[in-house]
Structures are given as structure tokens and as C-alpha cells.
Amino acid sequence: MALPSRVKIVEVSPRDGLQNEKEFVPTDVKVELVDRLSAAGFPNVEAASFVSPKWVPQMADGADVMARIQRRPGTIYSVLTPNMKGFEGALAARADEIVIFGAASEAFSQKNINCSIAESIARFEPVVQAAREAGIRVRGSISCALGCPYQGEVPVEAVADVAQRYLAMQVDEIDVADTIGVGTPKRVREVMAAVTRVVDPARVSGHFHDTYGQALANILAALESGISIFHTSVAGLGGCPYAKGATGNVATEDVLYMLRGLDIETGVDFDAVVDIGQWMSSHLNRKGSSRAGNAIAAKRAA
Ligand code: HMG
Ligand code: MG
Fold first, then answer.
1. How far apart are CA 122 and CA 102, in angstroms?
2. What is d(CA 170, CA 281) in angstroms, rounded to the nearest whole number?
3. Which residues form the Pyruvate carboxyltransferase domain (predicted)?
4. Which domains does the chain have, with CATH numbers?
5. Of the ligands numbered here, which is closest to the C-alpha atom of 119?
6. pLDDT 10s digits, 188-246
7. Residues enclosing ligand 1, CB less than 6 A?
8. FRET label pair with 266: which of 8, 41, 238, 250, CA 20 to 30 Å apart?
């Protein structure tokens, strides 16, 4: 299949990137991160989570973050909402998009959101309905689409089944998520083929963690499968507190570098993203994991 000429990048570092940080990242830093990402031209920034602060303390200041960011006209600011309580927070925070997050693995669903897949779908239904009534976009994330830390193999049919349930609820976009970064390109093709048999590929996104170093190859496989929306995180920050051992999302800098080499447009300012990755890493007192970001920074310093 021909590659797309343009790709939508959803920058998830303020949420997926920071949710797993042990030290609380000050609200000021989170706000600055979102504002810098907006200015760099990302069409969609995942800015916060409205989840239980006992489960994910790092995301407890989501309402403050959303209140203080400078919204760039046209940018979609997304937040995670596991239930109606989360939705009420998202509505009050004027989120442009909510994300319901289920899983293709029963074991992970229990660990992450404390309910079965069927219970999660029942919980999401009123959330999606309320969002639609309020004119808010809805994204449905499918965790463990390429493997589960507790259950191991996840059949592609299980992923397509959750996608179908989301579609029945009329979600706008469906995220195929490799939560623990175990997928390889062949499996990505199989999963994307199964999902795009039920969902228009234009509404499907790839959310790849890079634990096993496969994320760029997986994105290329997904591009070849007709997918044109990808989630990335500056400096490769990220990870789910309920997916032990999993590392961050694929680094935005690396993806932008690859897409530029493929002549695929994103509308995002690559040099600004390199700066943001270096700035955020220095705040966290460690070197970021983006190979392209670190290479450019080293070249600039030489
Ligand atoms: P629960 O304990 O079953 O919920 O947790 P509950 O309804 O029984 O409520 C228990 C307490 O939590 C109550 O407070 C509620 O008010 C409160 P208490 O009376 O004990 O003081 N509560 C809330 N507080 C704030 N916001 C809310 C909320 N809901 C309940 N929305 C629950 C169920 C879903 C709430 C919990 O399991 C939870 O918050 N889980 C979130 C887990 C999470 O955020 N994981 C990381 C994000 S997912 C991810 O990273 C994967 C992704 O990147 C894709 C991929 O890579 O796979 C998206
Ligand atoms: Mg994730």
C-alpha cells in the first residue's frame, strides 16, 4: 500500500509521558510542556488524565493543568476519562476530546481499571453518550493489543472485538496500543488488518511503546497497513504504572526524523521538538531516550 503524504501526530508526553514519573512533576512544568508542544504545531496534545489520584498520583493536577494552558486555536487537547466522574472533570476542564481506555486483555483490564472488559464497556457507554451530547470528540484506546504483561499472547480477534464495541458506541478514533512494546512488524500488520476490517483505517491510530526497540519498525508496518495517526512522546518519556517493566512511548523526535525521510508531512517543527525533549529531560535529571533528539543536540553542541 502507498504511504500517506501526511500523518497526524498525537503528542502524549504530558499524559503518558509523565504519568509514570515517581517524583511529582510541578504543575508549572506540565503547563509549560503543553504550551511548548502547542507552539511546535502538534494538532493534538494529550494533556491530562481525570483518573483516581490514588491510582495515579502524578496526574492529580489535571484540572489545574487544563485551566492554565494557553490553547492554540485548532489544537485538540485530550484527556483520559475512565468513568463518569472523570468525564465530569473533563467537561469542566473544557477538554476537546476524551479518551476511554479499555484493553484487549482481561488481566490488564483488571489491573489498570479494576474491572473486566465487559464491565469497562458498560462503564464507557454513558461516558461516550455524554461526550457526544456535549459535542466532545471521543477516542477509544485498546491496551495490550500486541501482548499483555500478565496474560502474554493476545488474539487479534480480541482486539477487533473491542474495536467493534467502540465503533458501536460511535467513538471517533480507535487507538491500537502496544502498552508494553512487545509487538513486531508482522504482528502489527495482522492486528491492523483485523481492526481495519471493522473500522475505517482513517480512524485508527498506532500507539507504540518502545520497550523492545520495535516501535519505529512497527510504525512503518502500520503506515504500510494504511494507518496515518500515531501517538508519540518527546524524549521517549512514558509508561503505564500498571504495566511493569514497560518503557516509554516511541520518541517523537525519532518518528519525525523517520517521517521526514519518507517525505511525509506532519506540520510539526522538528527543531522545536528537539529543544522541548532536551528541556524536559533536564527537568527530570536524566538523558532522554530519543536517538535522533540526542544526536541533533550533540551536533549542535559540537
Ligand atoms: P475503583 O477503585 O474501582 O473506583 O477504580 P471506584 O469507582 O470504586 O472509586 C474509588 C475511589 O476513587 C472513590 O474515592 C472515587 O471517588 C475515586 P473515595 O471515595 O475512595 O475517596 N474515583 C475518582 N477520582 C477521580 N477521578 C476519577 C475517579 N473515579 C473514581 N475519574 C478507576 C477505578 C478506573 C477510577 C481506577 O482504576 C483508575 O483511576 N485507574 C486509572 C488507571 C490509569 O490511569 N492508568 C494509566 C492510564 S492507561 C495507559 O497508560 C494506557 C494507554 O497509554 C494506552 C497503552 O499504552 O496501552 C492509554
Ligand atoms: Mg501508553
1. 11
2. 38
3. 7-274
4. 8-301 (3.20.20.70)
5. 1
6. 999 999 999 999 999 999 999 999 999 999 999 999 999 999 999 999 998 888 888 89
7. 16, 19, 49-52, 55-56, 80, 82-83, 85-86, 101, 112-114, 141, 143, 177, 179, 207, 209, 240, 242
8. 238
